[in-house]
Write a sequence for this structure.
């Protein structure tokens, strides 16, 4: 079963066409990595599929529901239902600075899912422990390292029990040591067969963890396929040129 299906998606900002007739799907349990140079449309694609941007045309299905068909969006109730099935982890954490780590994770469970505070806090503590942050429940974001804040952000996304988890370059704001913390968490989620779409510049990570890779450039999909093949032995000259910047990524 495909958790995400995108057909002939396009997105323009004024006269600038950023995404051009893109189609792909993400089966349940798959980890899809989206790679490509800056300005290739990766983040816009992610924002379009998570309904942070309105598309110009095309069709998107998420978790068996139609978000948009031929550029026409579903009714508000359906869109809300779809958005509840989508988790999104941003580059810059986006935690509430005046909430503790525990409350950052619990608040949406109470307000959006209607869980009791006790139930939400229990779920949040369980997720903090899973992230290796059991002792940080009472800490505020300013008291946490960047890697710890990003792990809280991942826990917050997981707390709503999404059908698919999207990551928008989750390590771009972190130094190499902290990057390793986040990649370890994503590897763990992959081992649990969490459906994920990861926009990343970490080529070795994409090769090791992703089941499949999409390489984008100029708003189109240039190449896609099994991660080991696309990154280790790309077919297209443009893909090879891009990967040559990452020592040892393409052989």
């Amino acid at each position: 079963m495909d958790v995400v299906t995108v057909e002939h998606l396009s997105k323009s900002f004024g006269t600038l066409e950023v995404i051009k007739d893109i189609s792909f799907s993400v089966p349940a349990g798959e980890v899809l990595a989206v790679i490509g140079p800056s300005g290739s449309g990766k983040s816009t694609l992610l924002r379009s599929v998570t309904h942070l941007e309105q598309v110009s045309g095309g069709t998107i299905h998420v978790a068996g529901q139609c978000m948009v068909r031929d550029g026409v969006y579903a009714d508000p109730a359906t869109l809300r239902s779809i958005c509840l099935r989508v988790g999104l982890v941003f580059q810059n954490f986006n935690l509430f600075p005046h909430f503790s780590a525990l409350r950052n994770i619990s608040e949406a469970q109470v307000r959006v899912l209607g869980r009791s505070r006790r139930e939400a806090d229990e779920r949040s503590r369980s997720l903090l422990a899973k992230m290796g942050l059991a002792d940080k429940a009472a800490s505020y974001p300013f008291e946490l390292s960047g890697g710890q804040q990003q792990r809280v952000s991942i826990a917050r996304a997981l707390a709503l029990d999404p059908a698919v988890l999207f990551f928008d370059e989750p390590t771009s704001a972190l130094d190499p040591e902290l990057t390793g913390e986040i990649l370890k968490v994503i590897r763990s989620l992959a081992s649990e067969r969490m459906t994920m779409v990861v926009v990343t510049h970490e080529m070795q990570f994409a090769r090791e963890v992703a089941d499949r890779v999409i390489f984008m450039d100029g708003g189109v999909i240039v190449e896609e396929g099994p991660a080991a093949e696309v990154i280790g032995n790309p077919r297209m000259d443009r893909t090879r040129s891009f990967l040559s910047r990452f020592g040892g990524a393409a052989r």
Notes: The first helix runs from residue 42 to 49. The chain has a mean pLDDT of 94. The longest strand covers residues 2-13. The two ends are 33 Å apart (CA to CA).
